[in-house]
Amino acid sequence: MILDYQSFPHCTIVQGTGYNAAVDHSTDQPPTNEPETPPTSEQPPGPIADEQATAEPAPSTAEPQSVTVAATAPADEPTRRAVPGRVISKGTIYVPAGLWPRILAFVIDMLVLLLAHELMILLTGIQFPDIDTMMSTLTSAFEETMSSGLISTRTQAELNDLLLPWRFAGWLNVVMCAAYFTIFHGMLGASLGKLCLGLRVLRHDGSALGYGWAFIRYLAYFIVAKLAYTAWLVPFDAKRRTLYDMVLGTNVFKPVAVLEAATPES
After folding, report:
1. What CA–CA distance (Å, rounded) separates 115 from 173?
2. 20, 49, 115, 201 - which has most CB atoms within 10 Å?
3. DSSP code, position 20
């Protein structure tokens, strides 16, 4: 076979062994100066790679992380943190209660004590004098005082008999109130009125009162109430403490947030 090399402008005639071959140079690429990319260290195929791919990680022997405490507080917690007198008790954040919640709690307590006082009077059988006897004795005492400046012995005895049931009922009320606030504050940390409003009586470090401090607090309250009847309920300092709370290091608080333990992720 005879090849016409003129019909193949891009070919070169190469003399071979006994025949001429046409080599096409149209597809030859010029040499480049780019460095060769080093081979990547891929996992070689084979049974070893399959075993490594299917191998499960060894179980961790590390001890679980300690439980941390996170507060589920509302968004305005930074503002509440700035409240003076803020305490933490049994995983709950408390801030001092305001004046109006304390007044409402006091009104509820007084209604409870009034009903209990009437029940105690019925059980003890205290007999109060009627209105006519009271008015007659008081009129006689007033006339004698205006005429001579002195009260007769007979009128004085009548006054003592008139006031005796009231004195007994008054001291019965004091004992009943002392028992009421001591038991409820010592056992539950709040009276019935405070429980209705979610208030609690705590010490300055967030600890509970106990029966001893609850009784001492009532005595301080009783003294302040006798000396200044309206001053016992009004807060006097930035921590919203009354006079006897300032002396004893106690206060009435309301809860604002609950602390809960955050479990570690598995």
Report:
1. 11
2. 201
3. E
Distance (Å, whole) CA 112 – CA 174: 14
Judged by average pLDDT, the poorest of 60-69, 184-193, 216-225 is 60-69
On whether the CB atoms of residues 252 and 209 are closer than 8 A, the answer is no
Q: Phi first, then psi: give them for residue 107, nearest 5 degrees.
A: -65, -45
Whether the full predicted model's pTM is greater than 0.85, yes or no, is no
Q: CA-CA distance, 84 to 239, in Å (whole number)? A: 5
Helix ranges (H only) for the chain are 47-54, 77-81, 99-124, 131-148, 153-187, 192-197, 210-227, 243-248
In the DSSP assignment, the letter for residue 232 is: T
Q: 162 and 129 in contact (C-beta within 8 Å)?
A: yes
Confidence tier at 258 by pLDDT (50, 70, 90): confident
CB 119 within 8 A of CB 172: no
| Helix residue ranges, H only, 26-152 | 47-54, 77-81, 99-124, 131-148
Asked whether 242 and 235 are in contact (CB, 8 A), the reply is yes
Q: Encode pLDDT of 133-192 as tens digits.
A: 888 888 888 887 888 878 888 888 888 888 888 888 889 999 999 999 999 999 999 999
Secondary structure (3-state) at 255? strand
Dist. CA 222–CA 172, nearest whole Å:
14
Per-residue buried b or exposed e for 49-67, using 16+ beta carbons within 10 Å of the residue's own CB:
eeeeeeeeeeeeeeeeeee
